[in-house]
Amino acid sequence: MRYIFSLFLFLVITLSACSKASDDKVYNSSVSAITMSAPASVDGPQTIPQKIIKSANLKFETADIEETFQQIQKAVKQSHASIQSDSEGKNDISLYRNITVKVPSQNFDVFLQSITKGVSYFDQKEISSEDVTDQYIDLDSRLKTKRKLEERYIEILKKATKVSEILEIEKQISEIREEIESKQGQLKYLESRISESRVFIQFYKPIAEKQSVKVSYGSKLLTAVKSGFNELSGSFIWLISIWPFIIIFCVLAYFIRKRFKRRKKE
After folding, report:
1. Looking at residue 58, what DSSP letter applies?
2. Nearest 5°: CA angle at 60, between 55 and 62?
3. Which of 24, 39, 65, 209 would suit a FRET pair with 110, their CA atoms being 20 to 30 Å apart?
4. 29 or 66, higher pLDDT
5. Of residues 197, 200, 203, the one with CA closest to residue 81
6. Measured between alpha carbons, how far is 83 from 99 in angstroms, rounded to an integer?
7. What's the pLDDT tens digit per position in 112-130?
8. Considering only CA atoms, which of 130, 132, 177 is closest in space to residue 151?
9. Of 58, 194, 62, 193, the residue nearest 126 (C-alpha)
10. pLDDT per residue over 85-113, tens digit each?
């Protein structure tokens, strides 16, 4: 009887060990399979519309700064655009204004036509279209792959029993999620550049040459008068500060001269 009981206990222990080893083998195989052979592409070939980033840089002369600005504001409203920055100033030769506008890409061409209406000559006109379709597809594909990988690790996490296994899987999931967030940020930035185009506008009005010369000449004349007065005042103050030395010098010169005259008489 004791022999039969010992044999039964041995069989139970052996079966339990085999079952546990089998589970460990399945877990290790699953993790290795995911780590070593992540899918290169989640779905089959996709047709993605062409992704273009448009931008423009314009510089031109205008007869009326305020009128041109009003024209740009009108075009901004009609094109559902927005002014990102606006600055104005003056230098020796012109009054100028610089504006940066973000406009929906589908309204890009219409907006340019509206703001340049009546411009006969451009000091600078640069219009660019950058094709980022391949970059977009690559980012989108990598993002889908990482999400699929995350799903597989979550499925394995549900079946894990050991604390060490759970911690290792959670570490892998955390790293994958960081990569997913990074790819999402890059894709979101790229999509914003594609959906909204940037237009840099600089327009200016020359200052009349005669007016510029008069102002410049008058300013120089006034500066010269002030400078001369300051120099004269400085010289006068300097003379006052050294008057004792001047008196001493004059007295010494008088006595020396008088002594020389006496020697000549002798």
Report:
1. E
2. 135
3. 65
4. 66
5. 197
6. 7
7. 999 999 898 999 999 999 9
8. 177
9. 58
10. 999 999 989 999 999 999 999 999 999 99
Cα–Cα distance measured from residue 60 to residue 121, given in angstroms and rounded to the nearest whole number: 7
User: What is the DSSP pairing of strand 196-206 with strand 52-61?
Assistant: parallel
Residue 186 to residue 200: CA distance in whole angstroms: 24
Tokens read off for 234:
């400085």
- 79 touches 103 (CB < 8 A): yes
Report pLDDT for 243. 63
CA R_g for the chain: 43
Whether the per-residue pLDDT at 220 is higher than 70: the answer is no
Contact yes or no for 58/199 (Cβ under 8 A): yes
What pLDDT does residue 266 have?
61
Residues 6+ apart with CB under 8 A from 203: 58, 59, 60, 61, 62, 65, 68, 96, 97
Tokens of 167: 């911690």
Contact residues for 39 (Cβ-Cβ < 8 A; gap 6+): 145, 148, 149
pLDDT by residue (tens digit) across 27-56? 455 555 454 444 444 454 557 789 999 999
Token pair belonging to 117: 């209406």
